[in-house]
Write a structure and sequence with these properties.
The chain is an alpha/beta fold. It has two domains: 68 residues, Roll (2,3-Dihydroxybiphenyl 1,2-Dioxygenase, domain 1), CATH 3.10.180; 88 residues, 2,3-Dihydroxybiphenyl 1,2-Dioxygenase, domain 1, CATH 3.10.180. It is built from five helices and eight strands. The strands form two sheets. The protein has a four-stranded mixed beta sheet, covered by helices on one side. Helix 4 packs across helix 5. It is elongated, with a radius of gyration of 19 Å.
Length: 157
């Protein structure tokens, strides 16, 4: 069975978005581009779909028109190994987009992402409920996640 492939619906920016996304992560590439056939009205010859991979995960971007737009009901999580990696991805993804809270953002195409530092899940699931609660409270006041500040809050008693 083939892996599950998310299909991202764009109005007309599928190829531009796919090129941007593959520039963000290692082991990423565009694998195929299809075009609307002749007889498709204004869309004849324009990009229909772009198959691409992000860090080895397959995706499809579709230029389907303006009928549907992204919302926060779905997002993609990027787990970062270093603060530098997190800072770089946050900066690049929010350029032309918008920050939200708790590590969430929308990129310039309206797609939601969560940029997550290493150690985040362990901190929030700490066996000491007071420690995990303090980390959670600190997180709720953040836009871009700062794992060091979350750890400091967790350790303050």
């Amino acid at each position: 069975m083939e892996p599950i492939t998310p299909c991202l619906w764009f109005d007309t920016a599928a190829e531009e978005a796919a090129e941007f996304y593959v520039s963000l992560l290692p082991d990423s590439k565009i694998t195929a581009v299809s075009r609307y056939p002749d007889g498709s009205g204004d869309r004849s010859g324009t990009v229909l779909t772009v198959a691409f991979e992000l860090n080895g995960q397959p995706f499809t971007a579709l230029n389907g028109g303006p009928e549907f737009t992204f919302n926060e009901a779905i997002s993609f999580q990027i787990h970062c190994d270093t603060t530098e990696q997190l800072d770089d991805l946050w900066t690049r993804l929010t350029e032309g987009g918008e920050e939200s809270q708790c590590g969430w953002l929308k990129d310039r195409y309206g797609l939601s992402w969560q940029v997550i530092p290493a150690g985040f899940e362990q901190l929030l699931s700490d066996p000491d409920p007071g420690r995990s609660q303090r980390a959670m409270q600190a997180m709720m006041s953040m836009r871009k996640l700062d794992i060091d500040a979350m750890r400091a809050a967790a350790d303050s008693a």
